Amino acid sequence: MPETFSGTEASDGVPHPSNPTQTLPQALAEWLGKVDRPGDFCTAGTCDLPAPGLAVAGVGPIALPLIPLQGEQLISVAEPAPFGRGTETLLDPTVRRTWQVAASKVTFSGRNWPQTFDAIVRRVAAGLGIPGEITAELHKLLLYGEGGFFREHRDTEKSDGMFGTLVIVLPSSHDGGELVVRHQDREVALDMRPQDPAEARFAAFYSDCRHEVKPVRSGYRLTLVYNLLNKSSRPAPPIYDKPRDAVSKLLAEWGERDPIKLVYPLEHAYTADALAFDTLKGVDATRAALLVAAAEQVRCDAHLALLTVEEGGIAEHVVGPRYHRRHWSDEEEEDEFEAIEVCERTESLSEWRQPNGYDPGFGTLPLDESELVPPGALDYLDPTEQAFHEATGNEGASFSRTYRVAAVVLWPHHHWMKVLNQGGLGTTVPVLTRLSRAAGADRTRSEWNDAHALADVMLQSWPRRSRNVSAGAVPFLEALASLKDTDSIVSFMANVAAEGFFGRADAAAMARALRLLPSATAAELLTRISGGPGSLDARAALLAQCCDQDLTQAADCLVASLPEAAVQSNAFPRALRIAPAIVVDIVHVLTACAPTLLDQAIQAFLQAPQHWDMDGVLIPAALEIGHSAPRLKEICIAHLIARTAQPLFPPPDWARDATLSCRCGHCTTLARFLSDPTAETWHLKAPEDIRSHVQTTIANSGCDLDTVTSTKGRPYTLVCTKNRASYERRVQQRQQDLALLDRLRR
Known about the structure:
746 residues, eight-stranded antiparallel sheet
C-alpha cells in the first residue's frame, strides 16, 4: 500500500482534559474509530522497475537511468509544455519551464511493464481510497532540465471521468524537482528522485489539489504523466480534518501522568520485511497517516513497530469431546493439547520504522498494557505461532505461543529519552555513544545537550542488580569522557559506584573518567567508593587504576574494610571469593600511595586464613608481586619451609586415617577396617541405600580407598581396597612446594 498523507512511567488512568470521562488512550481510540474509509487526497510510493522498454518516436529506445545525451535528444523532438488558464492554453517560461512529448510518440515494450504498471494503479486506487477499478491514460512524457519547474496550479479535466493525476518519475540522475501537493490547509512535499537505478517513484492526487514542481537544480527529471479515470463516478478526496485536529488537540494535552508512549495496533498483518508506512493496507494506511499528520502539528514523534507478545504456560491433554472455536467435536485425534494457564508473558516492540522509511535503531523496547490504544487492544488477537510440548520427567505438558501485530507508536518529542530508557542500557548506550561522537566536547552543539540529558535519565534508573559483577558501564563512561561531561561523571561515581554497583571490568573506564575531574573531587569520590558497599574485588581494582590520584584516605578506607570484606552477611553484601588479583591490587595501591598501611593489610590477611588462603591466594599473589611486599614474601617462604620440613614416608602397613564424618554402624565398621594394619580389602554386602551411604562417607572424609561394586549375588557387594592416595598427594605437594620456594627466593 502506498504512503498516504493525513494531515509518570505508567498511566494512572487519569481523565483527559478534552474529555474528562476518558483517559488519553480511550479518547484517542474513539477518534480513530471514526476514520473508517481508507485513502487520502494524495498518495505516493516506490516500485521496482524491471526494464520497461521505453521508446520515443524520433529518438528510439530510451536507456534507463536516463543519460544526459538522450536527455538532449528528447529535447530535440519535444516542445515546450504549455499550461491552462481558464479556457486559454498559454506558454510562459516564468510559470512553467519543461519539455513535453505527446503520448502518441511514446511506446512501451517488454513483458514486465504491464504488470508493474497495473500494480502501481492498484496501489494508487487504494491510496486514494477509491473502491473498484480505475484506469490510467498516458497524457504526456515530461522532461525537466536544469532550472525546469512548474508553479502552483490545478490540473484541468482532460477526459471524461478524469478525477486525478498519476505521476511516475523514471530513473534519472537529478537534484531538485520536488513535488508539492496542497489540499485545503494541508501540504505534502515529496522527493521524487528514485534512490536506485532499478526503481521508480510515483505519486497520485485528486484533480482539485493544487500542486507544483520545484526547480530542478541539476540533471534531467524524466516523468510520465497519466490522467486517472473512473467512468462510473467522480470520486472526491476524503476529508479528515476534524479527526486530525481532534487528535492533534489530544496529543497537545499529553500530561505527565499519561503513559510515556501510546501504542495503536493495526488491523492487517505485516511481516518485518514489509513493514513501512507506504505498505500499510486499507484503513490502516489512513489512520496511520492521520496519526503522523496530527503528531507533526504538536511536536510528537510517530513510528511504526512490530508488537510481539510471547506467552508460555501449562497445558494438558484433551480427553473426550473438545470444544473448538466453531463446533463441538468428538472425533478422536492424537496428541491433542489445550492451554490451561499462562505462566509467563512478555510484550515488546521492535523493527522500528520512521515515516521516511528509515530505521531509527531503537532495538527492542518493552510495552506496558496502559500504553495500548484502546485499552485491552490485544485481548482478542489470534496467535501467529503456537506449539505444545509433551510432559518430560518432572515437567508437565506446556505450551508456547507468539502474537505479532504492527502498531503505530506515538510519544511527545520530549519523551524520547524516557522511551529509549525503557529498553535499558542495551538501547540507550548506543544512542549516547552516537551523540557523543557527533558532539565531542562542544557544549554548544544540540547533540551535546541531548547526550547530557540522556545520561541524566539513564543514571536515574541505572540497573542495580548485583554488587559483585560489572555494571556494563564501560561504553557509558567512555561516552561521558568523550563529552567531557564532568557533572554526569560525578553523578555516576556518587550515585552508582559509591553504592557498589560496579565491577572489576569497569575499573579502567572509571579511572579514565575520574581523571577529567578536579583532583580534590576525584579524591573525595574515591574515598566514598573505597569505603562503600562495593565488592572488594571492584574497589581494589579501581584504586589500582588510580594510583596517580590522591589515595591517602581511600587506601585507609580500603584497609579498614579488609577484616570483614570476605564475611558473608545480609548487612555487608559485598562478600566474594577472594582471588590473588585482589591481594596484588591492594599491595600495588599501598606500596604506591600508603606504604605505612601495608603491614596492617598483611595482618588482616593472616587473621582470616579461611578467606585469605595461603596456598590459593597469598602465595600466588606473592609470586606476582615480587619484591614490592617483602614481608608477605617472607611469610609465604616460612609457610613452605615449615611444610617441606615435615617427615615424609610411605605408609609401613595397611593402617589408614580412620577419621570419618559419620558414626553409624556401617561407618563404624569402616573405621575399624581403616585402622587395621593387616587388612587391605573390605567387602560390604548390603542394599543399595547402605552402599551409597558408605560411599558418600568415604568421599566426604577423603579416605584412602578405591571402591567398586560387585554384582555377583544379591544384594550387591561394595568392595573397598586401600591405596596410598594421601601419601602420593603429599609427595606431589612437596614437589610443588620446593618449586615455589625456588621461585620466591629468586
